[in-house]
Amino acid sequence: MATRGKLRVYLGAAPGVGKTYAMLGEGHRRAERGTDVVVGFVETHGRQHTADLVDGLELVPRKPVAYRSSTFEEMDVDAVLARHPKVALVDELAHTNVPGSRNTKRWQDIDELLDAGIDVITTVNIQHLESVNDVVEKITGVPQRETVPDAVVRAADQIELEDMSAEALRRRLAHGNVYAPEKIDAALSNYFRAGNLNALRELALLWTADRVDDALQQYRDTHDITGTWEARERVVVALTGGPEGETLVRRAARIAARASGGDLLAVHVARSDGLSGASQGALATQRLLVESLGGTYHQVLGDDVPAALLAFARAENATQLVLGDSRRPALARVFSPGTASDTVRASGDIDVHIVTHAHTGRGVSLPHGGGSLGPRRKLQGYVLALALPPLLTLALSPFPSELNLVSDMLLFLLLTVVVALVGGLAPALIAAVLGSVLLNYFFTPPLHTLTIGDTNNALALLVFVLVATLVSSTVDLAARRTRQAARAAAEARTLANLAGSVLGGEEALTEMLDRVRETFALRSVTLLERDAGGWVPVASAGSPVARPSDADTQVPAGERLVLALCGRLLEAEDQRLVGAFAAQAAVVLDHIRLSRAAAEAAPLAEANKVRTALLAAVGHDFRTPLAAAKASVATLLSLDLDLPADDRRELLHAADTSLDRLAGLVDNLLDMSRLHTGAMSIDLQPTAVDEVVARALDDLGEDGRTIVIDAPDDLPLVRADPGLLERVLANIGANALRYSPAQRPPHLTCSTLAERVEIRVIDRGPGIPADDWDRIFLPFQRLGDTDNTTGIGLGLALSRGLTEAMGGTLEPEETPGGGLTMVVSLPTASDIPAAAPGRRERDGTPR
């Protein structure tokens, strides 16, 4: 099997920045070094400098593809594969091939070349990437129909950004180096405005920076690099859920902002000892603040808070860590310096900022009643068990006559309880045994021997040891139960946090795996699925693995799914928690696939519904005009009838009217079909509303002259297709005339609202209940009609479809006093002067 070829992508912010030129230049450089280079496909767009660079490179002939009585040229994939060069230059990665081609998209052609071991150099603009397509449309107002999945570009071995300032690109455009002279003015005043270009340039720079960051992280993972590389500032702020959280977040955001737009990450360590005192409400508020400042919120589990913080920071390649000064009183900090001090000592090359705040030193120090039985607490317990009994003995020795044996035992029992609270059962037993020996030697007659002369004293010592053991056991059991309950609460909080992130589609599945990776401080998490050919990665966070055996920990997620975890071996309790995540991941994957299947089935169901309604309409509504026309023609053809001239004219008129109505029905059906398939041609241009209104009313004949018009003289131009807008207004006007009383004709008014023009067609008919407003826009609906000669119910459905295709809206409103108002709202042509040439009054004179 051939080694897969390498992909190099030249990414640009806009057409004309020099992507194709750079691609061809790279082709020449490689050819000069002796590399076998061919041009699979290049589009010069009439640019002479680009065309000159094609000379000297071998061109693979294009493949002609016939489509709709025309012939187009596409890349000949078979010819390139047969030629099998070392490098193929293929322009326009996001291009959609002509129907009938080998593949639907050009990036699929390129994928075949890569699979064959051919290196490919290609080009793409930022507006064609799927993830930013909607953002680009908001910036430029131009929808991009040719897109390429981000994953295709991110998978490239090299991505090179072709950058150019907005001013330089506009100069290049003005000099005729991008478009033909007749297109320059329109391009400069629309898509290539300086603001648009600057926004697109920033999008391209940010997207490329993220890609470089991913490559850096992958390199660090591959080479097991845990140290911080300060290639990009990342500021991590630690949140406890305390009242100082908002101060810390804002301080960290300022630090990140001063670092040329560094990343802000907030992290909360959910401790399993339950002593953090974290307020979930405060954490939720702080999370919203972090996200409003452009940062991200994360939560991890960890008994050792400093170690968990630093592990997270190093995994994210953070450069700075922001902590709040301790809220504990100064006396409490004498015995235990706290999280901040431990973090500073172990931070290494990560800068740690300790931020003072209004709550520093004002907290309450909680007693550590055995809530944590970690190694440090046990060590402290052993030290106390060995040190406190001798110290208490020394303290009691000067007072042999003031205190009796009972008092001494009670003091030693209190000491044992203290040791149990600190270190648990084992240190408490040591303290009890050592205390009983000291009591026997120093305070039980005969003194300074281990012999007990009095039976009562022997019984008292025995009871002391039993009571000390029982109390220690109870304290230790309570501590363990507290720890288990706290860990369960921490796990529940983590599960709730992860559950909130899995709502959505495929991106949510990747986000969920990323949260698992962060929570357990892993290098990567991969969801693998077994099929007939082996294991296939479904989704991953970090560098994916190919097989479960390549991972450090494997957690089953279903019959054919496994969650592969790399970075460290997980404890049994952690694996149980990850098992819940794995089950949830399987549910999310099933949901994604079911949603995808439902989405694929929805158009089929809709098409079937329309087809059924169409057949019913054709079988009923087409028959009436067709039968009338046939009857008229049959009568005229009858040889037995000698018809007067007036009757013949009347029959011919009836046939002509019926056939016109039939032709109108067919036109509406065809237009509705074009709208559903996206094949209707829309010619948007600055349009004078009053001219279109005049033509639409003329289409309605004599009845149209009864409609009362109220339009201001200074009405701005709208961005619309004049012909389609005329049909929309004619359809709405015909409906208004049909339902308006003879003595109260419809009104048509025009007004301006913000940057839109609203055209209202008002009738005083019976109206339609608000609950039925949505139904009147469904195809093949004749709500309220009592006859079948008025059409097949496509008028309003077609009108709304045409309006929305022009970027407008068509909505009903209730007419005050009774009736229905249809409102057509269209955007103004704001970049066109109000007195544009060609706009005329109804009498034909220029305005």
From TrEMBL:
Entry-linked SMART domains: HATPase_c (SM00387), HisKA (SM00388)
Enzyme nomenclature, EC number: 2.7.13.3
Keyword ATP-binding: yes
Reaction equations catalysed: ATP + protein L-histidine = ADP + protein N-phospho-L-histidine
Membrane topology recorded in Swiss-Prot or TrEMBL: Multi-pass membrane protein
GO cellular component: cytoplasm; plasma membrane
Record's keyword annotation contains Zinc: no
Residue ranges occupied by any Histidine kinase domain in the UniProt entry: 617-830
InterPro entries linked: HATPase_C_sf, HATPase_dom, His_kinase_dom, HisK_dim/P_dom, HisK_dim/P_sf, Histidine_kinase_KdpD, KdpD_sf, KdpD_TM
Pfam family, one: HisKA
Stated name of the protein: histidine kinase
